[in-house]
Amino acid sequence: MPRHPQFDQYVAACTFPGVLDEGAVEAALSRYVGSLGVTRSVRRLRRGWRLETEPALRVSVEWILDDFTKRLAARAARAARPARDARAARDARDASDARAARDALAAIAAIAAIAAIDAIDASAASAASDALDAIDAIDA
Fold first, then answer.
1. pTM for the model
2. What pLDDT is stored for residue 44 in this prediction?
3. End-to-end alpha-carbon separation of the chain, Å?
């Protein structure tokens, strides 16, 4: 990322050891912030300052925290998407497996029913054959 000459001037104004020229620091920081296309009030905060006594700074800090929170939520949502997709795929697979198991059970039941019918038919045929043999024996 290319550096801004205004940033270098700001850093030079803050470099120690040396005498701190507050005006030079504020001017260099104002030029740097302006070069970024941002309009901000630049001034020194004295020892003991509090956010409650700096309403403009408080608004900026709250905006930054809100933006940060939104970005974190968006990042978390993007990170959760693959897990959500995987869960949906697993649920679909489980549903498909359940359908397949139901279909298999239905097929097994149908095969068992057919076998039972065949057994009944075979038993009836055997009984009929035995009856015919008995009739033939009586006739003889």
1. 0.40
2. 81
3. 115
